[in-house]
Amino acid sequence: MHILHHGAANGVTGSCHELAVNKHTSILIDCGLFQGEDAKADLSIEFNITNITALIVTHCHIDHVGRIPYLLAAGFKGPIFTTLATAGLLPLVIEDALKVGVTRDPKIIKACLSLLNKRIIAVDYKSWFELPCKGEQTAKARFQRAGHILGSAYVEIDIINKPSLSKNTHRVVFSGDLGAPYTPLLPAPKPPYKADTLVIESTYGDKNHQGRKERTQTLKSVIEHAVADNGVVLVPAFSIGRTQELLYELEQLIHKTPKNSKWRDVHVILDSPMAANFTVQYIKFKHLWDAEAKRKIAKGRHPLDFKNLTTIDTHHEHKAIINYLTSHQTPAIILAASGMCS
Q1: How much of the chain is in helix, strand and coil states, percent to nearest 5?
Q2: CA distance readout (Å), 110 to 31, 56, 90, 163
Q3: Which range is least confidently modeled, 128-137, 161-170, 249-258, 328-337?
Q4: What's the rounded Cα separation, in Å, for the pair 94 and 65?
Q5: Is 192 in contact with 144 (CB distance < 8 Å)?
Q6: How many CB atoms within 10 Å of residue 261?
Q7: What dihedral do alpha carbons 81, 84, 86, 92 form, nearest 10°?
Q8: Which part of the chain is the Beta-Casp domain (predicted)?
Q9: How do the domains of the chain map onto residue ranges?
């Protein structure tokens, strides 16, 4: 057994790791897009995929899945294992990536998505699944919650040798991206019971982030200033994860204010069709939310679909809401993808 890193080794994007079970079988963990300083003009798969029998997806951020179309184009014919929620999100992410970075030809996009959907095998958390192997070893894997975004997981892979060999099973754990504790919506990850080999990613390295209370207080202060001035707060946010966390925190801030407060009338505008689509998936899989979020649902609250929230689906609606805010001088919070904000 050995591990090859085809991405996210000298940078933080393009996650792609090859677990060589033996000389006949390799398992690929993620196949992400290189971004920012790591970006490459040629996105074609530069490594040999002859022995790759399966792809395991830890989560569907673009830097972990963005090169899957190129993997399929290179001739990969194996299964793509994901969690149940990731299986719902992945086609949306790939469709958007194709439109933005490859082609807007509907026939090509449809063909790629059709192929992708045929390959996806959705597996629930904690359920072992067999990996296709050739040679003397067998292998199985299971997903555990990573708490990063909806459907995210770290993956445990057991490589099982013949009983006659000295050590029968070797467990390899790939972290994917791990969520921080006490973040909204999703339970914090629990550490694996064991690992003989651990591959852990560290996007932020030695950075110390604000705690949730401090972040929420900062957000509240900015919005209070805008509300007092009848101003607009423009927030760039990733479509998956950050947007839903912000909606959750905004609903909580509005809910806690007195009924006669100006906060009760502030408009929260989600000006990103992609983020809106992903939010629908978050609601669909609300059984994966943490205990705090589930308690709010039990009380009849809707943390991702509350009264103040307006979702923009078309350019016409976008122009209409901008005209409305300009003419009425009313306080608002606009969440949009970073490209929409520039």
Answers
A1: 35, 20, 45
A2: 20, 22, 14, 46
A3: 161-170
A4: 8
A5: yes
A6: 12
A7: 110
A8: 243-342
A9: 2-199, 212-341
Between strands 153-160 and 16-20, the pairing is: unpaired
Nearest 5°: phi and psi at 64? -120, -15
* pLDDT for the residue numbered 327: 87
* Residue 287: how many other CB atoms lie within 10 Å: 8
What pLDDT, in 10s, does the model give residues 277-313? 999 999 999 999 999 999 999 999 999 999 999 999 8
Beta 52-56 vs 26-29: how paired, if at all?
Answer: parallel
Q: Pick 80 or 314 by higher pLDDT.
A: 80
pTM more than 0.85: yes
The C-alpha atoms of residue 33 and residue 67 are separated, in whole angstroms, by 5
Instruction: Let me know if domain 212-341 sits in CATH 3.40.50.10890.
Output: yes
Quick: pLDDT tens for 189-245: 999 999 999 999 887 777 777 788 888 999 999 888 888 888 889 998 889 999 999
Residue corresponding to tokens 């993620």: 30
- The tokens describing 91, both together, are 């086609």
How many other CB atoms are there within 10 angstroms of residue 233's CB atom? 17
User: Token match 């959705």: residue?
Assistant: 122
How far apart are the C-alpha atoms of 324 and 313, rounded to whole Å? 16
pLDDT band at 259, cuts 50/70/90?
A: confident
243 Cα distance to chain centroid: 11
Q: Ramachandran region of residue 86, left (φ > 0), alpha (ψ -120 to 50) or beta? A: alpha
Protein fold of 2-199: Metallo-beta-lactamase; Chain A (3.60.15)
Evaluate whether 2-199 and 212-341 have a shared fold: no
Q: Cα(223)–Cα(334) distance, rounded to whole angstroms?
A: 11
What's the one-letter identity of residue 191?
P
The residues, ordered by sequence, that sit 6+ positions from 299 with a Cβ below 8 Å of its Cβ are none
Q: Is 300 exposed, middle or buried (0-12, 13-18, 19+ CB in 10 A)?
A: exposed
